[in-house]
Amino acid sequence: MSEVYDLSKMLEEIIEDEKVSTSGNRKVSQNEIKTMLLERQRTAGRVDDCTQIPVGKALIQEGLISQEQLDAALHLQASKGGKIGSLLIEMGFISDDDFLRVLSKKTDTQGVNLLESDVSEDLLNLLPFRIMEKYRVIPYDVDGRTLSLAMENPGNKAAMHEVEFLTGKTVHPLLASSYQMDLALQHMQERGGKCFSGLEIQQGLRAPMTILTLLEHLAQSEGSDLLITVGAPPTLKILGQFVRADMPCVTSAQCVAYAKALMNDDQWDKFLAEKSFHFASEYKQAGRFRVSAYTQRGSISLAIRRIPESLPSAEVLGLPSWLVQLVRRPQGLILITGPAGHGKSTTLRALLSTVNESRGCNIVTLEDPIEHVYRSDKSNINQRELGSDAISFSGGLTEICRHAPDIVVLGEIRGEEEFEMALDAAAGGHLVLSTLMAANATSALENMVNRCPLHRQGLIQQQLADLLLVVFSQCLLPGKDGRSLVLAHEKLVSSNRVRNYIRENKLAQIRAQVPTESEDFASFDVSLGRLVREDKIALEAALALAEQPESLHEGRRRG
User: pLDDT by residue (tens digit) across 373-385?
Assistant: First the structure.
């Protein structure tokens, strides 16, 4: 066997005369050492590090990943490092076996799946763990004087020479992916370098809790949301407060597993293509949930909203009776507005349930996705989901208006197109209910009008003035008892004054009035003052939201 040099050690021992003795008979110059070191670095590089672009292109050519998926993995690699193959596997873009097959083909080396292998202690004893860790190799099998060696880089001649020297056997290289080598070496290190089981590694990869277990936990806790992101434990949102689950931080691979478990194959493909996907899932053991899956910094995050099976009544929610009466109107537009996560959809469902229980109507909804599933009572309720029942919002709403609806329910208005079509539906003789994200009632209308093309804003303002019934803006505050959320609201009800303000684009003037309640307008400050006087919320919570905080202090003194 030829002599093997430890080049790193040799460089450290270079003396002033640029000579180093490697044996009693021979001296090697510094330049020779540098040349040898460069060659060693070239051959010792990891396969999917030094050839990541060719490997990525090969995966694309094989139809295993898309260019967008490769770009996402490269973006993640730039931010947190790591090997491109490992990142592609962790992100769920490619399987271990497919990646190994492409690498084997590229390097013309037989591949081996470490996660489906067990290596005996006798085999592991052939090499010190420090050597396995240094060269990222694992003894895999032995046949006489031939040692099959699982290697991250089968082209690493220095590794093979040292293994041959230590074992006295001829090395037959086998290719192992960097992702599996990472897992295998970590597994062995935790067990003193003398134990290796692919089955145990697979079991260790399983999340401490399945997604179904987490959903059941969310339902039992009466929390509203479950948030899953890489680098933090699963987090519940209970009464507006974050509560960390008692489990380790979620890894990228676990996030992929959770997302895959929630989606079917078509949904997963759509998510990979669009990087964001919103849908509803239902489980007999846990209930129904709205899921928002999205990518951030190349990894997957999940925001899951629990949809209660039973709907609280309008009275239990604290909705005013005048709002409930407005859903009896035959035509017009009712908008429920407020920040995200403050109960807009729950209010909309409560109003719809009131109609369903009290009178006969044909109700058609267009939702993205369908959240609560209604049962027809006195009314017929037909629920259409964007994507599965309707290709687009505009097409879906056009079709709805041909289905002889009395009431049209739009899950959420997100842009000017939806807003204008909602107005058109109301102008067609229907009662239209929808939600809209906005800070307050007046800004909801101003923002939507201002989004429309300038040449159409006058017409939109005229339609809005004629068709609007009410803008009901709401937010949820922690109750003083610490065990509940309390509804605060603002109203903007259609009246001659309000209609004129809308036509003249002067809604800001109505907010400038002293915060007292009138038939057509009452700001959040009015509702907040009432809740403070009724001892339902703390003054500090009200002041944080108040538009004119001094009015709350004055109202409290008068109270």
Answer: 889 999 999 999 8
